[in-house]
Write a structure and sequence with these properties.
- Helix 2 packs across helix 4 (about 100-115), helix 4 (about 100-115) packs across helix 7 and helix 7 packs across helix 17.
- The radius of gyration is 33 Å and the shape is elongated.
- The protein has helices at about 45-55, 75-90, 90-95, 100-115, 120-125, 130-135, 145-155, 160-170, 240-250, 265-270, 285-295, 325-350, 360-375, 395-400, 420-430, 430-445, 455-480, 480-485, 495-505, 525-535; strands at about 1-10, 20-30, 30-40, 70-75, 175-185, 210-220, 225-230, 255-260, 280-285, 310-315, 315-325, 380-385, 390-395, 405-410, 510-515, 515-520.
- Helix content is about 40%, strand content about 20%.
Length: about 550
């Protein structure tokens, strides 16, 4: 027996569908014989030809018209991972119970906000760079009006229902509900907007109008609801309605509402203290702490860095005051005061040594402006005598202020049997999770601003999209926790969420051509990419 042809593929096209026959050929007793080893079915003719060429070991020189060519390369891995996670979390079903086209468009925008920041118009032009829109079922050119703006309007109409679904999934009876407020400023003219207005700007952007954003999270920091308020809205004014929203709209009858010191004010507490099923955790303002000091309920010596000291108000037995001292905050506040005092002293000395002739009113105006800038007036004594400034720093007042560095008081009406003092303080500290959410939504990853929309309904929908993107990011970070935990520190630190996305973006879908046949091929993940996919529980 003489082998004529090793294992090869023969294609039979006389059938209704082409079939590949795996066979080898040999000569025996002067006759050519064939040995069949299997059949390939279910493939089209082009696919069978590619396999046939591979069996033949055909390798064509570079530049040959039938040699392998890469015609196009587009991002695939990051979009695939985010969209699969959204489906696993049933975010698509929360958007709407039926897979309508606008739902897929919204998923593309939510994933796009996480992977590609920028305007909706920018995202609509990313077809040549990413498979995101195709993975969401959009074939061909993306129209920003049809695939972005109109779905945003549908999304806003569904916001209440979507947030109800998220609340059912992530809020629990009798557990903490975290709530906080931030602002985001605008540039440009918004004359017809009822949202964009001047107000207290948390970004320090004076002369800029803004909007106010309220965010509800569960006790682990997972976002479940967001609302956009007018830019001049007072933080505390939103609290009673938010509590009603959680209890009535989301059906959480028993909860512990956690808000910052500017949220659960004394006035708000008086409004809600008798609401059934509601407890609160907040913190006292500096003035409220001084009031307790005047009433001799507390003394500076009670504040300890190692343990939480609890005080009960005899006039309000249901209220518990948890006294704490944070050493890091103590050091930071002391350093800040010292720096501002030095700047104040330098400015006062400059005014005192000025050789320009000025009357008392002019000198007083300069001093007032300086003290207002650094807010150190309570430590400075000054007067103008014979057109000269005479000033001094009251060190006793400075030392009296230092006593309170790092001190804070957590106020709660949660019964002690429900939450011990240390647990109450830990509950208040969980507001840091909402602050982390705001950092991601505003600047770090999701970039809620600049806002390119001029219509109020689109502004609201845009903010909601950013919250949904953070919802996916939050879940991704939970799954990636082992990766971040094993990472190095300082210069040896490799992994951040942004770098994870970049590694996933490096998984590409290539449009290739071989032997005149075009086909799509996804690049094989490298070891670190596969580790990320495994943690996310995503398959390509």
């Amino acid at each position: 027996m003489k082998l004529l042809r090793p294992l090869h593929l023969e294609i039979q096209t006389h059938r209704l569908n082409p079939v590949g026959i795996l066979r080898s050929s040999f000569r025996q007793a002067g006759k050519v014989m064939h040995s069949n080893h299997g059949r390939l079915t279910g493939l089209n003719l082009d696919q069978l030809k590619l396999i046939q060429a591979a069996f033949a070991g055909q390798a064509l020189p570079k530049g040959h018209p039938d040699a392998l060519q890469i015609l196009q390369s587009r991002e695939y891995g990051a979009s695939r991972a985010v969209l699969q996670l959204a489906k696993e979390l049933e975010l698509d079903l929360a958007l709407y119970s039926r897979p309508e086209p606008w739902v897929k468009d919204v998923l593309a925008m939510v994933a796009g906000r996480l992977i590609y920041q920028g305007s909706k118009l920018f995202l609509s032009h990313q077809g040549p760079n990413t498979t995101l829109w195709e993975q969401c079922g959009v074939q061909g050119p993306v129209d920003v009006q049809t695939h972005c703006y109109e779905p945003m309007d549908r999304l806003l109409q569904r916001q209440v229902g979507i947030q109800k679904a998220l609340a059912r999934k992530h809020l629990q009876e009798g557990r903490l509900v975290l709530y906080d407020i931030t602002s985001s400023y605008f540039e440009g003219q918004y004359e017809d907007s009822e949202i964009v207005a001047f107000g207290y700007n948390r970004d320090g952007k004076r002369k800029h109008e803004q909007m106010v954003i309220g965010l509800i999270c569960n006790q682990d920091g997972c976002p479940v609801g967001v609302e956009v308020f007018a830019g001049n809205t007072q933080d505390a004014s939103t609290v009673p309605d938010k509590i009603r929203e959680v209890q009535q709209r989301y059906g959480i009858k028993k909860l512990i509402f956690v808000g910052d010191r500017g949220m659960v004010t004394q006035a708000n507490y008086e409004k809600v203290k008798d609401w059934q099923g509601l407890w609160t955790i907040s913190a006292l303002t500096h003035q409220q702490i001084l009031d307790l000091l005047e009433r001799k309920l507390i003394t500076p010596e009670l504040f300890d860095e190692r343990k939480v000291v609890e005080v009960i108000d005899p006039d309000h037995p249901k209220l518990r005051y948890c006294l704490c001292r944070n050493p890091e905050t103590k050091a930071r506040e002391g350093a800040t005061r010292q720096r501002l005092l030095e700047l104040t002293q330098t400015g006062l000395e400059k005014i005192a040594q000025s050789k320009r002739k000025a009357d008392a009113a002019h000198i007083g105006a300069r001093v007032g402006k300086l003290l207002a800038k650094y807010k150190m007036g309570k430590f400075v004594s000054w007067k103008v005598k014979r057109s000269k400034l005479i000033w001094s720093v009251d060190q006793k007042k400075v030392q009296a202020e230092e006593v309170w560095d790092g001190c804070y008081v957590v106020r709660s009406d949660v019964p002690k049997e429900e939450l011990a003092a240390a647990e109450t303080v830990a509950g208040y500290k969980k507001l840091e999770l909402v602050e982390q959410a705001f950092r991601q939504i505003k600047t770090v990853q999701l970039e809620v601003r600049p806002v390119y929309h001029k219509l109020d309904r689109r502004i609201r929908s845009h903010v909601f999209l950013c919250m949904l993107a953070y919802y996916l990011q939050w879940h991704m970070k939970q799954r990636l926790a082992p990766l971040f935990a094993q990472d190095g520190t300082e210069k040896n630190r490799r992994w951040s969420f942004a770098n994870v996305l970049e590694r996933l973006k490096a998984i590409r879908q290539e449009r290739a051509k071989l032997n005149g046949i075009e086909f799509d091929q996804v690049t094989a993940p490298e070891r670190d990419q596969q580790s990320i996919l495994n943690l996310l529980k995503v398959k390509l």
